[in-house]
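Consortium newsletter contribution from the modelling node. Members have asked for a concrete example of what our holo predictions look like. Here is one, prepared for the zinc ion complex that several groups have been discussing at recent meetings.
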Amino acid sequence: MEPITQSLPEKSARRWNSPYDALGLEPQVSVYLTQFAYSRVCLHSVSDMDNEVGGILVGEWCLDEASQRQFIIVEAALAARHTRQSSVHLTFTPDSLVDIHNEIDNKYPGKKIVGWYHTHPRMGIFLSHYDTWLHKYFFPEHWQVALVIEPHTAKGGIFIRQANGLFDPSRYFGFHEMDGNLENSLVHWTNLTPVVKEGETSNE
Ligand SMILES: [Zn+2]
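And here is the predicted structure:
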């Protein structure tokens, strides 16, 4: 598989940093999350405040030729319907994976699975041993990511493989919010902070 060549969509995006983004870590890809995909993830996340829910992130894997930086654009989030759910973990069953591949073929032909998301009700933003195993096994590409959401405190973060090959289960990254109306950001996760671009004034 090859990335598609595309310029970084910086102009139509707004950056949200996690507390770990300032540590000088080097994620292998930057994540651009459309407002459409973000709102789908949020709606699904609060649909069950007691049990884990999750699904698949669909979009593109891209390369910005000028900077040689790789990034993904998350264009949609597909809820996994046939998951085995419990309050402590979520797994993708063969039925849910078939379902998801059919939905991608029908609605988003040619798009890639760029990662997955799931909730951690009343837990923090981290990947369990099981989550880490699932990520390695089902999402083995260096550009595939894992998004975790805590719906009670409204927190979220993205786990991304780093340049040195490390996949840290406790340090998560923020993302670029894109498309839609960036004057009215949809991002409300309390553990992320907006990065104010040069020439802009903060409304905080
Ligand atoms: Zn988990």
